[in-house]
Amino acid sequence: MVNTNRMAEIGLLIGEPARAAMLDALMDGRALTAGELAGVAGVTPQTASGHLARMTEANLLAVERQGRHRYHRLASAEVADLIESVARIAAVTLPETRRPVTGPRDARMRLARTCYDHLAGGLGVAVTDALVARGVIVFDDGAGIVAPDGLDRLAALGIAVETAAGRTARPLCRPCLDWSERRPHLAGRLGAAVCRHFFDRHWVTRIGGSRALSITPKGRQALRDRFGIAEIG
Amino acid sequence: MVNTNRMAEIGLLIGEPARAAMLDALMDGRALTAGELAGVAGVTPQTASGHLARMTEANLLAVERQGRHRYHRLASAEVADLIESVARIAAVTLPETRRPVTGPRDARMRLARTCYDHLAGGLGVAVTDALVARGVIVFDDGAGIVAPDGLDRLAALGIAVETAAGRTARPLCRPCLDWSERRPHLAGRLGAAVCRHFFDRHWVTRIGGSRALSITPKGRQALRDRFGIAEIG
DNA sequence: CGGATGCTTCGGCCCCGGCCGTAGCGTCCG
DNA sequence: CGGACGCTACGGCCGGGGCCGAAGCATCCG
Fold this sequence. Notes:
2 copies of one chain form a homodimer. The first copy, chain A, is an alpha+beta fold. Chain A has 10 helices and 11 strands. In chain A, the strands form 5 sheets. The first copy, chain A, has a 3-stranded antiparallel beta sheet with strand order 1-3-2. In chain A, strands 4-5 form a two-stranded antiparallel sheet. In chain A, a hairpin with a 6-residue loop joins strand 10 and strand 11. Chain A is globular, with a radius of gyration of 18 Å. Chains A and B meet through helix 1, helix 2, helix 5 and strand 7 of A and helix 1, helix 2, helix 5 and strand 7 of B. The first copy, chain A, binds a DNA duplex through residues 12, 16, 18, 33-35, 43-51, 53, 67-70.
């Protein structure tokens, strides 16, 4: 009884179109201002402000002040996990009466996007598969571990994984079930490192201010040469 | 935009105390009648009926008719995952202003409970750790795979894992982050098999109609003799 | 067949909470 | 220092939805 009320609070916070849109927008792991989030959600700043205050109060969001701006971000990777779970269910359990109405925007999201701080969509799954094929990580039915020499081999590729810090360290290698592909992609510290690498080398760039990613020509070549990925989808 | 509205619908369904209580009650993987769920949620049958209809319509629940009874259960393991995610956040992000108010009921849940169709809580984590220690499965920072001879060794213990069926088969071995222990316990088909084994041998019994489990004397002995688990918590 | 039981549908009450306009507070800039 | 800007607080409107009582169906049982 104690927990279900709290669960309902969490659900209620997600269960409002404007808030859901804001949370979704924050799934790219960046911190956005209240104004930007108001735009994303299609409400006025004062309305957005109220929503943000409630979500911050509930520890779903964290806020950092910088001058006259306030940057809002997801409070933790666990919250990102939660949102991803909801998105997964949303994609899977659609009542058949309503068709998804997949537009070009949606297609781009499916091709490549960020999921908090790692790669997702077709790109994320393809890169994960490539690492599995090369034996850097081993996947088995939706769960994976890093090979003994995995980190060294990644380092050889120029990908440095940050070392664990403290007892509450994030997992090194964690599977994250992709809502569009319905197959696991790479998350955890390793997933974040790979994603960072892709951005640093300009292999991918953000499309507009969204989570969707565009793969640059340079990126396509790198995928082909270094990961043996010729096509994504 | 297309997805966030659907996400909000999902959130809204969870975001209501009565519905959250019902979903939580169904987390034990059993199918319950509308009347039982009404009791759990503390509402009248007609109110519960409305809630159940909405959740079924949204494909969160599935219902099976049997005579004049209608048995409601979670629609899929993915929904169970979602609820577990919410519970995890609920346990972790409690605003400090409010104390958890942990009663004896809560203590029992933390000690041992079912999570959909596998073991969770202190018991679930302990059994998972034991399997890891014995090398049946390998865990690495929150993700695991089955050893090559893992299934054979489980079979030797009398635990039979059902074979995968079809393309949409459930994962064999999947980590599920325990909301009370904040460490992974064993899920997937393997987790279900272990849980079933515990029930079949009467090593555990349900406390009342809840998800909480009581470990029988026979169970304690089996844990000690077969898994090397002397104490749980 | 008639009553009990389990569940759903309908109708009406009422409150919660989203929305915006207006106003107020802090921060940056010329 | 005054104005622009970003954000928050307050008040009022209003619609969605939770709740129950009463009534309606279906199923089982004697």
